[in-house]
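Q: Hi! First time doing this. I have a protein sequence and I read that you can turn it into a structure. Is that right? Here it is:
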Amino acid sequence: MTGPDLKAWRARLGYTQAAAAEALGLSVSQIGDYESGHKRGTDRPAIIPRVVALACQALEDLDAGMAH
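A: Yes, that's right. Below is the predicted 3D structure, encoded as structure tokens:
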């Protein structure tokens, strides 16, 4: 999952950065770092952990299941 993928996921589910952070157990700054692709104030990349990508997929699957 890339930063743009995470931002698109938020848009599909109608989540703000704060709502996504709460749903994923992350901080709002982590969501921002992941979406921008770098850690704030550094040149270091912010790589989205696989567990976060899997959690996003699970939340989207649950959301889709509730819509039916």
